[in-house]
Structures are given as structure tokens and as C-alpha cells.
Design a protein that fits this description.
It is built from seven helices and nine strands; from the N terminus they run βαββαββββαααβαβα. With 208 residues, it is of the alpha/beta class. It has a domain at 11-78 and 110-173: Alpha-Beta Complex (2-enoyl-CoA Hydratase, Chain A, domain 1).
């Protein structure tokens, strides 16, 4: 998409993802960051973890009122990298096994690498002091990995975010309803709700 689109043509990228592996997210983010033309990241519902990393590469992030981003703190298997470092800080080495020490070493490197990536993606878009603060804040593990960074918080943190979500994007999302699974459960299927007359006297209802 980036290669085939003329730099004079702006690109709107819709992000709807819980995240994923750091490597592909970083590759996508760097490709977006190096594009000469404008890229806007549109987040109708959520773009967590690697999705946030990609959003940071865009020139502007547009979020709907209820949309969220998330921290980009690396995870090593089932463990947050920041938590592994805290374990090593709080225990003496004679009380730690080799596997924990190895994981902690990898955790330190992973956090440093993510912070460097965030600084790279924000360079030129934000003052150096803001880029440095955001790179640490989003990766240091001050929140859980699924912590919701709302539009209000994103703005408070200094990110270039807008709430001017085009209605066409939200309409597009209704074309991709949550699949109904074979296991019994409750599923929300998007559909328009309209007010209906009640007992012939008007009024509204919650729809069907």
C-alpha cells in the first residue's frame, strides 16, 4: 500500500487489533514512519500493544470517543518484562534460578529496544523531551498490558490525537460483526436501533 500510493496522496489506516508480536508491528510502524506523505491512524474501537506502536508511527491518531490505545511494554512468554526486572531487584541472586536471571536479562534488553523504537517513531513529530517521556511511560510497565489509554488520557500524555472520527469508518466496522461461535454464549451483533411507537401513543423503545 505504501509503495503503490503516491506521496501526495494521504493514507487513512484503520487499526482494530489487540496487538501481536513486536517484530512485525515494528516493521509496519517503520514503513509508515518513513513515508513522505501523510498517514492518519484511525482507531474506531481499540489498537493495543503492537497496534499502538503502529499508531505512534502515523502523523495523526484519530480515536472515537470510546476507543483506546494501550501500553507497548514487552511481554516475555507469560511474563511482563518490567515485572521480571522487579523480581530480580527485590530478591538476592542466591534466591533466583538461572531461568529467571536469563529472562530478566532478556527483559531489560526488550524494554530498551522498545523504548528506542518509540523514540524513533516519534522523532520529528514531537519535541525530544516529549518523545523520551512517552517512550519510557508506555514501556516501563507502570500499567498492566491491557490498560486502556483513552482519548482523554492520550491527549493528556501529549499524543497528537483527534476525536474527529469519520462516521464512514464506524459504518464500515458494522460490516465485520463478531462471529457467532458454536459454544453457547451471548454475542453482540451490530444493527441500527430505531424508536418504535408504544401502544399507539408514541415514545421510544430499546429496539429488538
Amino acid at each position: 500500500m505504501l509503495r503503490l500510493t503516491d506521496p501526495s496522496v494521504p493514507i487513512d489506516l484503520i487499526l482494530h487489533t489487540p496487538g501481536g508480536l513486536v517484530l512485525p508491528a515494528t516493521q509496519i510502524a517503520r514503513a509508515i514512519n518513513r513515508r513522505k506523505g501523510k498517514v492518519t491512524a484511525l482507531v474506531p474501537h481499540y489498537a493495543m500493544s503492537g497496534g499502538t506502536l503502529i499508531a505512534l508511527a502515523a502523523d495523526e491518531i484519530v480515536m472515537s470517543d470510546h476507543a483506546v490505545l494501550g501500553p507497548v511494554d514487552p511481554q516475555l512468554g507469560n511474563y511482563p518484562a518490567a515485572s521480571l526486572l522487579r523480581v530480580v531487584d527485590e530478591k538476592t541472586k542466591d534466591r533466583l534460578d538461572d531461568e529467571t536471571l536469563i529472562l530478566a536479562d532478556q527483559a531489560k534488553k526488550a524494554i530498551e529496544q522498545v523504548q528506542a523504537t518509540v523514540r524513533e517513531l516519534l522523532s520529528g513529530k514531537y519535541p525530544d523531551s516529549v518523545s523520551e517521556t512517552l517512550s519510557v511511560m508506555l514501556s516501563e510497565g507502570r500499567w498492566t498490558h491491557d490498560f486502556p489509554i483513552t482519548f482523554e488520557l492520550a491527549k493528556e500524555l501529549g499524543l497528537n490525537v483527534s476525536s474527529d472520527m469519520p462516521p464512514q469508518v464506524l459504518e464500515l466496522m458494522t460490516l465485520y460483526p463478531q462471529p457467532v461461535r458454536s459454544n453457547p454464549t451471548v454475542e453482540y451483533l451490530p444493527g441500527r436501533r430505531v424508536a418504535e411507537p408504544r401502544n399507539g401513543h408514541g415514545g421510544s423503545s430499546s429496539g429488538k
